[in-house]
Structures are given as structure tokens and as C-alpha cells.
Amino acid sequence: MGLKPSGEMYLETIYVLSQMKSCVRSVDIAEHMNFTKPSVSRAVGILKKENYISVDNDGYINFTDEGLKLAQKIYERHTVLSELLMLLGVDKETASEDACKIEHVISDKSFETLKKHMKDKQKQQ
Amino acid sequence: MGLKPSGEMYLETIYVLSQMKSCVRSVDIAEHMNFTKPSVSRAVGILKKENYISVDNDGYINFTDEGLKLAQKIYERHTVLSELLMLLGVDKETASEDACKIEHVISDKSFETLKKHMKDKQKQQ
DNA sequence: CCGCAAAGTTAGCTAAAGCTAACCATCTGT
DNA sequence: ACAGATGGTTAGCTTTAGCTAACTTTGCGG
């Protein structure tokens, strides 16, 4: 039935971590998000049950096709939104924080519009 | 401790209703937001307890100074954000829906930046 | 005056998503 | 070989914010 902001946040974190290190475990997520192990354990269980990730016997997490697609989508939103805010003069810290919130609630339609606007703006500068 | 998105949404709704009709009651909010009376009853109780509104003996709702200020702030965010999205080409419906979500999570800093950008954009067109 | 409709409240359910405490299973170092 | 660290899970608490069912209060119409 589609992920909630919280689930998307976990997925995005897994994506980011998977680009920084070869293998991602629950404990890495907990560390990175500053959540407790049980919280992560449950969230990972849900992502697995809903077929966004798989977890092998050693506790290493891998995306399913659907999971990867969604993670990349969220991550793109994050980067585009924070770049856009920064382009307009918002400091990096704030831009990233706000992008983190907006990325989970904005519609595809609005996001694509903003993305196009950002590209144009980027060119003309 | 500051209102959550849900509380802000109620406040904004009261503000909008108060501009459409002389008096606002809980049942009007319920009608407008498509929530049940008990849900609204609790929310109104919280807004009252936290001093954003007062409710007189007849059930009519009025803002406190703080409540009005916050309601106007949220409402301004809503209008500016949806105008901005529309200016960039997003349809009214979607723009309003997205504004509704973003208005509760964006920082003052980013909002003011976007607002300024919108004004500029508005002028040059 | 009786009865109904409208407005509000109370009690209690649910789901989401964080938490702690406590436990289990490995793996490692002396 | 066994103690402790590391990683994960289970059970159960808390808050938020929606819901239904059922109640109270009030104001009318006939």
C-alpha cells in the first residue's frame, strides 16, 4: 500500500550507506539515523515483508528491484530539492533538512516541475 | 512545545472558515476537513489548552493573539507555496495539495527564500 | 409537553513509529 | 574454553491522531 515517510527515510538511508560501504547491516542504519536497534529491526522487517529489500543470513541488506527504484527516486528528490534551495540562497544545512521533509510529501507532478525549473536556473547561472 | 502538522492544519482551517462565515464551531471544522466530531473535539481541546484558541459557551471558536498569528503564518505559507507551484506550471489542485503538506515542514529560512523568489518571478512576468 | 435533530463529549479501539529492558546467538581474544 | 563485545530480536510502553459507539445537552416543532 505504499511506503510512509518513515519507510522511505529508511530506504534512502540504506541507499546512501550502500554507496559508502560494501555491505549494509541494521546496526549501520541505526548508527546513521540515530535510532535504536529495535526500531531499525522492526522497520527493516517491514521493508522486507513489503518486498523492498532482502536480508541474507549474515544480516546484510540488499534492495529488490522495486526497492532500488524507490530508493533512487527518493534520493534524487533529496538532491534536487536541496540543490534547488541552495541555488536560491539557503545554506546547505537547512536546505538538506528541509529537502528531507519535503521529499516525502511532494507529488511527482510538482517535483518534476521544480526539477525542470532548477535545471533552467542552473544553466542561466 | 509547538504545534504539530495536524494542529497547524486545524488552525489553518479555522482561519479559512472564519473568513467565510461569521462564527466557527467544531462541527464546521469537522465538515470542512472531513473528520468526525470526536476527532475535532479532541483537537479543539488541545488548541484551547495550549492557548491558540478560546471557545465560548455557545461553542464558538475565537483565536488568541498567538493563535491568530500562527494561523496567519500557516495560511500565508499555503498561499505563497501554492502560488509558486502554479507559477511554475503546476495545476491548481496539485499545487494546493502539495502546499498543504509542505507548509508544515519547511523552515522559516527556506520559506522566506522561496517567497522572495516567487515575488521576483511574479514581477518579471 | 414530548420527541427529535443538532452539537459536543466520553470511552475506548487502532496503527504508526519511536523507546527501554531483556534476551539470544555469534565471534573473538586472552 | 569461556568472558565479553557485537548484532539482532522480542515484549511491551508511549504518543499522536484518526475512528466508532454511545452518551449528554439544548433547542424546536407539532
Topology, element by element:
The structure is a homodimer of 125-residue chains.
Chain A: H1 5-20, H2 26-33, H3 37-49, E1 53-55, E2 61-63, H4 65-87, H5 92-102, H6 108-123
Antiparallel strand pairs in A: 1-2
Helix pairs in contact in A: 1-2, 1-4, 2-3, 4-5, 4-6
Chain A binds a DNA duplex (30 and 30 nucleotides) through residues 4, 6, 25-27, 35-45, 59.
CATH architectural label of the largest domain in chain A:
Orthogonal Bundle
Side by side, the strands of the main sheet of chain A go: 1-2
What are the low-pLDDT stretches of chain A, counting only 5+ consecutive residues below 50? none
Net shape of chain A: elongated
- CATH homologous superfamily descriptor of the largest domain in chain A: Winged helix-like DNA-binding domain superfamily/Winged helix DNA-binding domain
Structural class of chain A: mainly alpha
Largest sheet of chain A: 2 strands, antiparallel
Overall pLDDT level of chain A:
96
> Helix share of residues of chain A?
55-70%
Q: What quaternary form is this?
A: homodimer
Distance between the termini of chain A: 42 Å
Q: What proportion of the residues of chain A form beta strands (DSSP E)?
A: under 5%
